[in-house]
Amino acid sequence: MHKGVTRHAKADWGWDLIALGSWIRREPAPLLGIDISSSTLKLVELERDRSGTLRLLHCAIEPLERGWVSEGNIEKFDEVAEALRRLVRKAGTRTRRAALALPGSAVITRKVSLPAELDEDQLELQVEAEAAQLIPFPLLEVALDFCVVGPSPSAPGYQEVLVAASRKEKVSDRQGVAEAAGLEPVIVDVEPYASRLAARRAIEKLPGGGRNLLVALFEIGSASTALQVVRNDEMIYERDQPVGGEGLTQMIERQYGLSREEAELRKRQGGAGLPPDYPQTVLQPFLDALGQELGRALQFFFTSTPHNKVDHILLSGGSASLPGLAQAVTLQTGFAASVLNPFDGMAVSPSIPAARLAAEATSYLVATGLALRRYVP
User: Where does the record place the SHS2 domain (predicted)?
Assistant: First the structure.
């Protein structure tokens, strides 16, 4: 093993990058899914009964000031740690083990084919040799992990291995802010993987159990929208589009002469307190424009791959809860669209207000995927 390279895939792995949940080797212990985005922190805790039914125990959102987290980097460490402490208190959980995630842009993932007869130590050495060719910075600066996906479909006697690598400081930032908030970080995942894990339950409810369907998963954040096109749990395309819910906040601000903070509050309250013309004058034009942007993202997919359609569109992220969005996206793209509620089909703790959950549910996709790492390796 190269000196200085951080790589663990066992239960006693330490505190660095565990990208694919490979740490799970025993009965699952309570776990918090913590999603750190540019505008909010989100927390989800789940449990599963003996029948396999999932139950939402705790969830909460804590806003962040602009600039505290930028492009996935924690710029204001102390402020984010304090906000994370507030989030845990707000959620009312006593659990301290946490799963966090890095943005996809901070992690390099590659599938490689390696001989199936390699033992774990040999496999580790081979992975490091492959990583040295894939990673554009010195391995001494790398947190590295891998997991065996299965037999290679094209090379008999070989196995597919998924390799994940990130700079150590990216991992340490997530670890450090969790520890400063009194949590025990046990997983650092990758946001797109967590999103797909949470979306799997929704995809399985599509016709045919979702098998072989081409599904476009949009996560509409504050400043940007992430697209993943997936089929059978495999991502075949991804793209970020510079459009998000902040655009609606700005339109409300300009139209009604409000401060940014007041406009954001009114938006989150579904337009409560705004003039009666809000749905037609502001909201619908924004939905139409957003639908066009999502359609443009799909066009990039079509022009760069052999595909010319998707079977379904799933909408998630904070702005996915805007009334009328699914209809606007279907109208603008020509493809069936629906809003993804990651808690659909789960039992919900009576301590969580139904109205709050209905307004916030679409925001919890990544946090739910991270919480599911308690049960899904």
Answer: 31-199
Residue 282 shares a structural domain with residue 366: no
**Nearest by Cα to 306 from 236, 238, 233:** 236
Nearest to 226 by CA among 346, 101, 347, 128: 101
Residue 251 and residue 117: Cα distance in Å, rounded?
60
pLDDT digit string, tens, across residues 295-335: 999 999 999 999 999 999 999 999 999 999 999 999 999 99
User: What are the pLDDT digits (tens) for 125-145?
Assistant: 988 888 888 788 888 888 888
DSSP letter string, 273-324: TS-TTHIIIIIHHHHHHHHHHHHHHHHHHHHHSS----SEEEEESGGGGSTT
Question: What secondary structure letter does DSSP report for 213?
Answer: -
**Number of domains forming the structure of the chain:** 2
Residues ≥6 apart with Cβ < 8 Å to 185: 15, 98, 99, 100, 174, 175, 178, 179
Q: Tell whether pTM > 0.85.
A: yes
Domain containing residue 235: 206-343
Q: Alpha-carbon distance 203 to 344, whole Å?
A: 12
CB 276 within 8 A of CB 283: no
Pair (286, 352) in one structural domain: no
Residue 158 pairs in a beta bridge with 115
